[in-house]
Amino acid sequence: MISKHTTDKLAKAWLWMSAILIILILLSVLGYIFVMGIGAMSVSFLLDMPKNNWREGGIFPAILGSLIVVVVAISFAGPVGVGTAVYLTEFQKEGNVSRIIRISSDALNAVPSIVFGLFGLSLFVFYLKDYTGGPSLLSAGLTLGFMVLPTIIRTSEVAMRSVPYAERMESYGLGASKLQTIRNIVLPGAVPGIATGLILSIGRAVGETAPIIFMVALNPTIPESLFGSGNTLTTQLYYLAMEGISLKVAFGTALTLMLIILILNAITRVFKKRLSRNLRRG
Amino acid sequence: MDSKNKIEVKNLNLWYGDKPALKDNNLSVKEKRVTALIGPSGCGKSTFVRCINRMNDLIDGVRITGSVLLDGKNIYDKDVDVVALRKMVGMVFQRPNPFPMSIFDNIAYGPRIHGIKDKDTLRKIVEESLVGAALWDEVSDRLATNALDLSGGQQQRLCIARSLAVKPEVILFDEPCSALDPIATGKIEDLIHELRKKYTIVIVTHNMQQAARVSDYTGFFLLGKLLEFGKTRDIFENPKKKETEDYITGRFG
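YS: structure for the whole thing
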């Protein structure tokens, strides 16, 4: 029979090994991309136009394209998502309407990203072609906006619920209206949480390929407008690798993408820390 | 010679859903006097006081009948502006809840909500309110620091100052000392004594000594009903009802 002491030791060893394995996997992925990508990385790689079918020059159009689709996505999903969260927390009593909104939002979150792509293709590229310019950066951004909407609703809702009920009562007690209370007490208290949700959404939007693969092609030029075509870091990476154009540049692109997401995660951590400090005070 | 009635509550009933919480209550509150409401937990005294500035409106499923006259005008009439009412009838809650902002911004919150933007005016109101709440001497040199860094007793006086800043005529205190130590409690009681000169005060408390110390009139609530009301001295020395006597002598509650 195995003694208690031995079981304890075995369990401990297993836990330790899992932890170490996770770190090893993470380091090998990051390390591999770093080693493979660092050769291509330089300031001109980030800021120059691609030349000679990506074999020389940089990846500036893709960085700009990624930036544009993310700005479009957040400008659409931010106001709509935060607005929905305000409605859910402050205006809607727990009931059927809020349940339907919440179920829809959760279901939306579970939709596979390629399905979002197909939906975006039908809606923005075909049906609304006259307004979006067909397969454009605008279509891609809006599709990503749909995709991150549930995240923004949920994080904003949690953030607003974390503002103590008593603070709202104090505000009403001083003669503030509902809107004044939301504007001056609820939203300011929820800012760190809302910002966390927005940054998480930016990270997700930057990193997605599938939803926008139908709208964004490999394109070596600076996008002319929102309604024109362009490419992003993720789609460029896909095409460069798939069509064997340049693995070196593909890894350089991957490294750029990883760095952007790591930086966004670091910012999120700062906001989370501030959020928990607020909670402790409240 | 006694002062006029500032508030007259007539036949006030309140239900939470179909559960009655207040049963046919009548009470007059004298202007610039302190009226204390005492009674065991759950007797409806807090619910009652929240009817006077319509805070119960914010709770789902509350139904109210009867009237509450403020200077002769029923605050439950359809044409009453609840915002204006709450500006006139301030409230201090059980636990101090400063907003997570500076001391200055806490006090200036109400005036700003009501449209005052001029910096000098705001500064004047903030100072007056803090002086009025006996907090000015302790915080005058650090108005920009976060109000959450104050002690519990200071926070409660800050909340009183915040109410004073919207220039109310009536202040409702809902067990304002239940989260405070005896020294902080003593300061709040002294302050209530001071505020009595300018404001009509209704205080809910389950501390009978406190009611005896600070109030001119006392009402005893039991099971949603105002059982006995009168001058504080009479209530404590010559209660007419047996339940009142039992409660104030500590036989139950």
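YS: worth flagging: The beta strands of chain A are 50-51, 56-57.
IM: good catch. Also The longest helix of chain A spans residues 4-38.
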